[in-house]
Amino acid sequence: MRTAFMETLRHVAEQDPRVYLVVGDLGFGVVEPFARALPDQFLNVGVAEQNMTGVAAGLALCGKVVFTYSIANFPTLRCVEQIRNDVCYHGANVKVVAVGGGFAYGALGMTHHATEDLAILRALPGMTVVAPGDPRETEAAVRAAVAQDGPFYLRLGRAGEPRVHTRPIDFQIGRAIPVRDGSDVTLISTGGMLHTAVTAAATLADLGIEARVLSMHTLKPLDCDAVVRAADETGAIVTVEEHSVLGGLGGAVAETLAEADGPRVPFRRLGLPSVFTREVGSQDFLRARCGLSPEGVVETVVPLVRRGRGERRSGGVLSDGARRGELSRGQAAGYPAEGA
Q1: Can you tell me the distance from the alpha carbon of 83 to that of 321, in angstroms, rounded to the nearest whole number?
Q2: DSSP class of residue 192?
Q3: Closest by alpha carbon to 70, among 106, 105, 120, 18?
Q4: What is the DSSP string of 77-111?
Q5: Which H helix or E strand runs over 214?
Q6: Range with the poorest average pLDDT among 177-191, 238-252, 302-316
């Protein structure tokens, strides 16, 4: 995704002199081609993300389209006050780009894990929040960010994510992309978890469970119609995100389902429990510890679908105990329950 972002941004900036890139003194192997090609549209403000955001807001208020860029925690949590007061309050045309969402920098420890950013950025007034699912979605998201006026958060993976989409896509802000159809359950993923969701869906098909997969690349505004339609047309919904289960994709989908008219369906949020990880390891290792491997998704979906089928046969409604009956993979791994 990182390479797709930089190449697309450089191409767009070559065509549009309003487009600027402001970085926080990192990623030279990645940003140097942009800096050499467009030196008058590039700024390195040093290790000073608060200044980076303030400078970007000033440029934006002078008519520029400004992308800020750094490792996931730093262009978001470190300067959230500047994003809130300088960018969002003024409706400035700043695009905050975070590379390495979730556990992408897993080996560097929790200080480099971006696991609460979606919830925090989603809460800011006027902010659009996008987490593309693969490099093709990333390319489309960059163009969409330039075309849309106002604050924009773009959460990327790091590098090496596989292309899930093999054909051209219809990418629209606030519209989920159907990746696979199914009638037993819907897997709604965001960001780099799309490949995991698709892989899990293939395994579920071998087990006789047909899973619909939606790439919910935009968390704000959420495609509520796609969520409600999934609840009506499939037997269960599972959200999959490399982020805290609080306030991100799972929270947004839960809010939609709770306020929607229509039948209630079994629902689970797969994500990180609200606790700092004490472990250090690769992204795949840390994902698996939280049930975010394809196998972990399958282990969550199978009993949920089977119970849903039983409920539909009996015409019953899930009891409170049944809704709470399963531990998340995170809890099974020894983490406390979300919200604890």
Answers
A1: 42
A2: G
A3: 105
A4: TTTHHHIIIIIITTT--EEEEEES-BTTTGGG-GG
A5: strand 211-215
A6: 302-316
Residue ranges in the chain assigned as alpha helix (H): 2-15, 28-37, 49-61, 80-82, 117-122, 135-147, 194-206, 224-233, 249-259, 283-289, 294-314, 320-323, 329-332
**Contact predicate 60/11, CB 8 Å:** no
For residue 5, count other CB atoms closer than 10 A to its CB.
23
What burial letters (b/e) apply to 291-309, b meaning 16+ CB within 10 Å?
A: bbbbebbbbbbbebbebbe
Mean pLDDT over residues 310-331, rounded? 47
Element (H, E) at 129: strand 128-130
**65-71 vs 94-99, strand pairing mode:** parallel
- Compare 161 and 12 and report the one with higher pLDDT: 12
List CB contacts of 235: < 8 A, sequence separation 6 or more. Answer: 183, 184, 185, 265, 266, 305, 308, 309, 312
Tell me if 129 sits within 8 A of 140, measured CB to CB.
Answer: no
Separation in Å, CA 77 to CA 50, 53, 96, 230: 10, 12, 11, 33
CA-to-CA separations, 126 to 65, 114, 116, 168, in angstroms, rounded: 16, 21, 19, 29
Q: Residue 308 corresponds to which tokens in the numbers above?
A: 């849903």
Please tell me what DSSP assigns to residue 299: H
pLDDT band at 315 (very low <50, low <70, confident <90, very high): low
Question: What tokens appear for 177 in the block?
Answer: 């992309």
DSSP 234-287: SS-EEEEEEEESSSSHHHHHHHHHHHS-S----EEEEEE-SS-------HHHHH
Indicate the SS3 state at residue 75. coil
pLDDT digits (tens, 9 = 90+) for 94-126: 999 999 988 988 788 888 888 999 999 999 999
